[in-house]
Each structure stands twice: as structure tokens, then as C-alpha cells.
Amino acid sequence: MKSKRVLVVALVACLTVVLGLAVMIQFIRHKESDPNGKADNSSEIHDVVDEEKAREIEQKKKEEHGYLQEFVRITEDTYPEKSQRSLYWEEKECSDNALGIVKVPGISQNGSQDLSWFCEDICDWLEECIEEVPYEKAPWLYSEIIVMMPSIEESFDPSPYLKDGYNRDSLYEGLYDFVDGKLTSADYPVKDDAYGTLEFTDNGDDDFFPSIEPDCSYTTQDGITYGLVPVDRAAGSSYYSLYAYKKNKTTLVNPNPFLGRGGEAKWIEFIDDSNLGFACLTYNGGDDGLLFRSDNGGMSFVQINYPSAKVKLSDGTIYNPFTIPEKVWAEGGEIYLLAGQSPWTGDYYSEELDKHPQGLYVSHDDGMSFEYVGER
Known about the structure:
Blueprint: H1 2-33, H2 42-78, E1 85-93, E2 101-109, H3 115-132, E3 145-149, E4 152-156, H4 168-183, H5 208-211, E5 216-219, E6 225-234, E7 237-246, E8 249-254, E9 264-270, E10 277-283, E11 288-294, E12 302-304, E13 311-312, E14 318-319, E15 324-331, E16 334-340, E17 359-363, E18 371-375
Parallel strand pairs: 2-3
Antiparallel strand pairs: 1-2, 3-4, 5-6, 6-7, 7-8, 9-10, 10-11, 11-12, 13-14, 15-16, 16-17, 17-18
């Protein structure tokens, strides 16, 4: 009986030792994993941090989406409601916001010489945008505008004029210089001196041309007459075809010389009876004009842009008063252009010349581009 009790006591003692060793081993392992004796819950902390960051990112995306929607709303309310403007959007990747994208507006001007009007409209639009969505809240909205005018589609960055306090005059002048420079630096075809002489070709057309008086015409020394004939009219504008006739024989040279534009044809001229010719179409009630060039006797035309005279008014506004191409001629191996002011709104007066002046331009590449010479 006594031996049984001794055996039980021994077994209990062994179990106590074993349990003590197990507890000690667990304690040692815990200490090794956490020397400070604290519970290891780092994974839980990381999960909480990640969730908080995710919530912050989603909130930022929500705010940025609101800014973008407001920017789009203001822009679409502005364009194309303004006359002679159109708007399209180009979605691009953006690394400067949480959204990862931005919508870049493309603003088109249907007409080339009224730069003042075009730039003023953009300044008005941006002013309204930054009133509702300040630059500091969403600078990525104001890093690019796609400017579209005849022969150009270029990106303009307005942010330098917005980030340190909006300066309308600086923005206007910067935009004006940018667009004017692009309009007059486009790549044109390689110069070709061998234009040849205008020749009349009888293609069997009927006598339609003599029955309608052309709005303007040019007659060569050998009796070929080229006339811009109004063949359609809409919204106060005429649309033209170019006909030629000689001794009551008529031919259609070009059914659409002004590339789909309407207005009033003012003149057509061929340099020294060669295939090199120019024509002017006025629009906007006669306040503005477009210059067109042909090097194949009028069978095709391209629109030519000439630079602004950059006249500065007393309030600092820069504009081009010489909006109507009036005359093109050859002299001394160069082509010259004389441009005048609108008969309705042209009120620029030169104290030096004591008159309302015209603008003189010269071309060194047969009228494919021009540079401003000065007032005349």
C-alpha cells in the first residue's frame, strides 16, 4: 500500500516537471519572438494601416472625380455655345492624381485671324474654371489645353499663368504669342519655282458661268477669265466654285476653292499669269478674312496664315488689326501681301503715319508663309 502511494507521488511530480518545462519552453519562444514581452500583433496593425490608406485613396479619388466633373461641366457649358468654336475631349493617363486619368479639352477656332477673340474666350473660360475649381485643389486639370486652328493642333500649358496667382494679361499674351507663332511656322510644301503659265482647257462644260456674274475675277493677257461664282448661299454666306472661260467656252476649274468655307469672295489674283495664285474670302460679316493659295492654276487651294502685327492697346491688350488680305504681288523675287482693317470695326489709328494703316508682309517662299514687315 505504501509503495503504491510512493508511485503516485512520483508520477504527479513527473507530470508537474513536464508541464513546467512546457510552460518554460513556450515562454522562451515568446520572449525570442518579442523581447519586450508584448504580444506580436504587427500583422493586425499592418492590416489596419492598409485599410486606412485605402479609405484615404478612395476619398481622394472621389474628390478628384468631383473636380473633374465640375471642370467638364463648365467647359461644356462654355463650348460650343460660343460662336465659331467647337470642343472635343481627349482622355489621357495622369500620374499627378489618384484617378490616374485626366480629360484634356481640345478647343477649335474656325477662322485664323481673329486671335484676340479666340484668346479672350479662353481666358474667360479658365477664369470661370478656377473660380469653381481653384488651381491649388487640382493643378493636374490645368496642365494642358489642345489648341486647334487652321493647320495646327498643338498643346498649350496654361499652368505657369495660374499657379502663382492668376494673371489674365500674362495668360492672354502668352497664349496669343503661342498660337500666332504656331500658325505661321507650319511645314509647307517644298518651294517650287516652275509654276508654268495659266492655260485654258475646254473640258466641254456648258455655258453656266457666263449666265452668273462672278463676285470677283481675274483676266490674263491672252483673255482667259477666272471667276469665283456664288453657287449656293446659307446663313448670310456664299459658297463658291471657280470657273474659267475664254471666247464663250467655259470650264469648271474647282468646285470648292475655299475648302467648304462660306463668306464673300473679295478678289482672286494669279502672279504674272502663272499657275501661282491667291484669293481672299471674308467672313464674320466682313470683319475677318482668309487667304488662300494655289500653285496649280486654281485646281486646288490651301489656306495660308500670316502673323499678327501684335499691336498693343493702352490697356495692354495685344491684337491684330490687319484682318483682311487686300492684295498680293511679286516684287524683286519676293511675294508681298497687304492686309487692311475691317471696314466695320477697324479703328486702329497710327499717330506716326497720321492715318488708319495697313499691314505689309513679305514671303520668301512664294507665299507659303509670310513675315510681318510693318505698317504702311
